[in-house]
């Protein structure tokens, strides 16, 4: 299914004294990838929340391969793993400017009704965009 790439530069605040990206920041990088994947389809988290839908992460798995460094230009590639139902699953690759694979990841998120906190099926407007 649809692949989206998004590039950004590592900020100094994301690194330790050796200029290496702190491992906890990778989750934010994959969130950027996911948000930009949705935005490329014309959907924003804000619009979903305004329509009463929240999308909490219920699973995150990261495999670290090589360190990202201060001022590296990184690209996160985000791919939808399968057609969403109540859950939506993404696979990610994080690469540096040289094309070296730094990390891979997988997230699973659940569509939830903001008011009730109960799971709901993927909204039709998202499914329709996936069929385009």
From TrEMBL:
Alphabetically sorted, this entry's keywords are:
Hydrolase
Question: What CDD domains does the record tag this protein with?
Answer: 4HBT
Which Gene3D superfamilies does the entry mention? Hotdog Thioesterase
What is the name attached to this protein's record? Acyl-CoA thioesterase
Please give the family membership noted in the entry: Belongs to the 4-hydroxybenzoyl-CoA thioesterase family.
Q: Which InterPro entries match?
A: 4-hydroxybenzoyl-CoA_TE, HB-CoA_thioesterase_AS, HotDog_dom_sf, YbgC/YbaW
Report if keyword Ribosomal protein is assigned.
no
GO function terms (MF aspect): fatty acyl-CoA hydrolase activity
**Which organism is this protein's natural source?**
Flagellimonas lutimaris
Write one Pfam family the protein is assigned to: 4HBT_2
Q: Origin, by domain of life?
A: Bacteria
According to the UniProt entry, the coiled-coil residues are none
